[in-house]
Amino acid sequence: MTTLPLPPSLAATLPGRYYTDPDLFRTEQERVFERMWFCAVRCADLDKPGAFRTVQVGRESVLVVRSRTGALNAFLNVCRHRGARLCTDEQGEVRRALQCPYHAWTYGLDGKLIAAPDLTRMPDVDRSAYSLVGVALREWLGYAWVCLADEPPSFEDTVVGAAVERLGDKAAIDHYGTEELALGKRVTYDVRANWKLIVENFMECYHCATIHPELTDVLPEFAGGYAAQYYVGHGAEFGDGVRGFTVDGGEGFGTLPDVPLEQDRRYYAITVKPTVFVNLVPDHVILHRMFPLAEDRTVVECDWLYAPEVVASGADLSRSVQLFHRVNVQDFAACERTQPAMASRAYRDGGVLVPTEHHIGIFHAWLRGRLDAA
After folding, report:
1. Contact criterion met (CB below 8 Å) for 334 and 196
2. Cα 145 from Cα 274, distance rounded (Å)
3. What does the alpha-carbon distance between residue 249 and residue 226 come to, in Å, rounded to a whole number?
4. Distances (CA, A) of 219 to 211, 213, 224, 268
5. pLDDT tens digits along 295-341
6. CA dist., res. 175 & res. 363, Å (int)
7. Taking a C-beta distance cutoff of 8 angstroms, is the pair 302, 287 a contact?
8. What is the pLDDT of residue 298?
């Protein structure tokens, strides 16, 4: 196919193979997901010693467990004996230790090898040399973030910095007190699309007037394709007559106590590369975590977080949850409609970005830089 020069109004996207090539996806696993901070699990989900969850980070299964001291620890989910998967369940609880189901090598919740059959007959074995392989862990926004890199990048620059870059001030996200919020609803979506299509979709609103009628009723400026999250400090304002971030624009819940007047009645969206979206509205926070599993499959966990007293009261959250749930379903359906075309010769050289989408090119340049990194 002949590629014509693009007019100034249009910018090029990534070629189609970036969304379909298994080898390229493996490179992303190695150079993106395994080298950056990855939002793994909500801390409150692991509410007692021995509670654990396993998550896929790049090519690795990572085990996050609450220790007896109350701290969260993360390890590669691999027994040091013969490499068996230590925990085969996605989540669960152990009493005092983690035991491999293959040969019963047993580890403390701090990862130390504490027992194994016949180990006492091997006095030359240094148990400390066969502890589980630890993974760096940081807590922020009430979530445990892990990094597989031998030398993790600065958490403040790459994770917290994304909020500062978007909002202009770390305090602007601190006002929502996300660490203290309670889980009101969690929905898991199994999306048959490449993770980058989901990121690109979240980054632009050129599609909003087409597929998000409920959202544009609440946030009218989105109907014009305005990408609010790419203007520092700007939050999309609720429309006239809209009383809350709900599916019908009706009353939501009380504004979170520390949200200032200038942030009230506004929606803010933050992308924390590579796989997290944070959505801030006056009375709750919505956080998406993506788990890319293949070049054409991404699992997305979406949490709706509210003031603890709202959840404890048994309040009906459905109108509040339903708005962004519909947005998610609409967005993910669009991504799944797009995925098959990524393998078409019509998309071999990619597509185009209109002016309100040009900022997606920043994401593309960032990704290419990561993939080219040795």
Report:
1. no
2. 12
3. 20
4. 14, 10, 10, 11
5. 999 999 999 999 999 999 999 999 999 999 999 999 999 999 999 99
6. 27
7. yes
8. 98
**Domains of the chain and any CATH numbers:** 38-140 (2.102.10.10), 167-372 (3.90.380.10)
Q: What angle do CA 364, 369, 370 make, to 5 degrees?
A: 100
**Does the pLDDT of residue 2 top 50, yes or no?**
no
pTM above 0.85, yes or no: yes
Closest CA to 289 of 28, 63, 77, 42: 42
Dmax over CA atoms of the chain, in Å, equals: 76
Cα(300)–Cα(170) distance, integer angstroms: 26
Please provide the distance, in angstroms rounded to a whole number, between the alpha carbons at the two ends of the chain.
Answer: 32
Average pLDDT of the chain, as a whole number: 95
What tokens does 360 get? 């997606």
pLDDT in tens, 248-292: 999 999 999 999 999 999 999 999 999 999 999 999 999 999 999
Q: Pairing between strand 236-237 and 276-281?
A: unpaired
pLDDT digits (tens, 9 = 90+) for 16-29: 999 999 999 999 99
Choose among 308, 300, 296: nearest CA to 279.
300
- CA–CA gap between residue 39 and residue 292 (Å, rounded): 12
The yes-or-no verdict on residue 71 having pLDDT over 60 is yes
Residue 246 is predicted with a pLDDT of 98
CA 152, chain centre distance (Å): 18
